[in-house]
Design a protein that fits this description.
Oligomer: single chain
Number of helices: 9
Shape: globular
Number of domains: 2
Distance between the termini: 44 Å
CATH architecture of the largest domain: Sandwich
Radius of gyration: 19 Å
Order of helices and strands: HHEEEEEEHEEHHHEHHEEH
Largest sheet: 4 strands, antiparallel
Structural class: alpha+beta
Helix content: 40-55%
Strand order of the largest sheet: 1-8-3-6
Number of strands: 11
CATH class of the largest domain: Mainly Beta
Amino acid sequence: MTLSLDKFNLPRYLGTLPLFSNMSEDERHRMAADCSLRRMERGRLIFSAGEPCAEFHVVVVGQVKLFAVSPAGVEKVIELCGPSHTFAEAIMFMGMPYIVSSQALTDTLLLTIPKGAVLREIERSPNFSLRMLAGLSRRLHGLIKDVQAYALHSGVQRVIGYLLGDKLSESEPASESLVVSLPVSKAAIASRLSLTPEYFSRVLNELETAGLIHVDKRDIHIPDTARLANYQAH
């Protein structure tokens, strides 16, 4: 990662995030003064379950996973966080320790925003409070969609849903080509979808054999998104 922290314009970056975009320049500078930027090398733990939580985080560059480990030592990826993705807001407000662990999957630049700075802005601005609530609501909606997918959708449907993302929610997906670059390992994505790595690979092979995708290392080429969305596994 070649980005220089000394030259990084943190107030300007905050303005690119929905949560802070409506702040004045002075407000963003005030917020930036309380934030910290950290370089996290690949594989480094950001926090562990059980540690106190007094801040939330934004991925500036890189990829981060949130995960839990069962008593038997089995890891389950809860969420994959890419650039501009925030995490740990809800736990921060609840005053609880982290309930999951977090690890950098690639070399990552992480922005950490302390609880005190957030509470100060909430007191100053009702609009900031509403944006924070909207962000938490989106996270809750995403978790509900995950539970529905695990309970109601087959493994093939979950993989297709991951590849197509928001396009799958359209009533009639348009026929268009698309290239999806897997941001992390297939094993991490499989765990995120509650699948084994072997099953995830079998599904990709099935879709490729059906002519619906072409796998080129981490790039998944989709020649017709509508055909993929309407695919029924045999």
